[in-house]
From TrEMBL:
Pfam family, one: SBP_bac_3
Top-level taxon in the UniProt lineage: Bacteria
Solute-binding protein family 3/N-terminal domain mapped to chain residues: 16-235
Native species: Telluria antibiotica
Transmembrane domains' residue ranges: none
InterPro entries cross-referenced by the UniProt entry: Solute-binding_3/MltF_N
Lineage: Bacteria, Pseudomonadati, Pseudomonadota, Betaproteobacteria, Burkholderiales
Keywords, sorted A to Z: Signal
Signal peptide: none
SMART domains found in the cross-reference section: PBPb
Protein's name in the database: Transporter substrate-binding domain-containing protein
Stored PANTHER family: ARGININE-BINDING EXTRACELLULAR PROTEIN ARTP, MEMBRANE-BOUND LYTIC MUREIN TRANSGLYCOSYLASE F
């Protein structure tokens, strides 16, 4: 993949590739002393290298802020869960990683299975603007959604609000449950998150196609798998070729 000047100008119009990095998803990124590291950072760095430009990280703490950064041209590319609500202004690649969305409840809860969640009187806590929020807003018919300020704050909000269920990335919920006794995850998953890269649609079809091809190359060349292993990520699977 050799970008021409048109592609380079479309994806990095300032001469620097600005990548929105969401710290709210621990599978993809985490904070460091000098900014951020993780799978999404590795991919952003490699895309900048292939474009022949420097990289600047636009570090945010929620998926919604990451989307906003790309839509507002404060960032050139981002790393998102594919969702139709985000697709009006963002061109998504095929996914590069698949992540499970799970439910967490208290040990004494009568809720035993995913199908028990959508009941009148149940309050389900999700990170505001996250893929789980978008999905559950469309699909829950009876339960009430309570929105935490960010995905990492879901379990704390769930406990403070005395809600029935917390929803989010399985690995984040598992980590929270290990530090707070009396919580358990429900078996299985209620959704699969398809994590992809995205660019503003107004950057043009050629730019979107270049990033889509980049993602396929990263999967085929083993870069995504190596990044997951390097950062010690478990529970996420490489998405099939798009």
């Amino acid at each position: 993949m050799i970008p021409d000047s048109t592609i380079r100008a479309a994806l990095a119009p300032t001469g620097v590739l600005r990548a929105a990095i969401n710290l709210g998803n621990p599978i993809l990124a985490h904070a460091t002393a000098d900014g951020a590291a993780g799978v999404s950072v590795d991919l952003a760095r490699e895309l900048a290298r292939r474009l022949g430009v420097d990289l600047s990280l636009v570090v945010v703490d929620t998926a919604a802020r990451s989307v906003d950064a790309v839509v507002a041209d404060a960032a050139d590319v981002g790393f998102f869960a594919i969702d139709p609500a985000r697709g009006t202004e963002i061109a998504f690649t095929a996914p590069y990683v698949l992540i499970e969305g799970s439910y967490l409840v208290r040990d004494g809860s009568p809720i035993r299975a995913n199908d028990d969640v959508d009941r009148a009187g149940h309050r389900v806590v999700v990170g505001k603007g996250s893929a789980y929020d978008l999905y559950l807003t469309r699909n829950l018919q009876h339960a009430e959604i309570v929105r935490a300020p960010s995905s990492p704050a879901v379990v704390a909000t769930f406990l403070d609000a005395d809600a029935a269920v917390a929803a989010g990335v399985r690995q984040q919920l598992e980590a929270d449950a290990r530090t707070r006794p009396g919580l358990r995850l429900l078996d299985g998953r209620f959704m699969v998150i398809r994590q992809a890269m995205g660019v503003p649609k107004r950057r043009g079809e050629a730019a979107a196609a270049f990033v889509a091809g980049f993602v396929e190359a990263m999967k085929a060349e083993g870069v995504v798998a190596a990044a997951l292993a390097r950062h010690g990520i478990e529970g996420a699977s490489i998405a099939p070729a798009g």
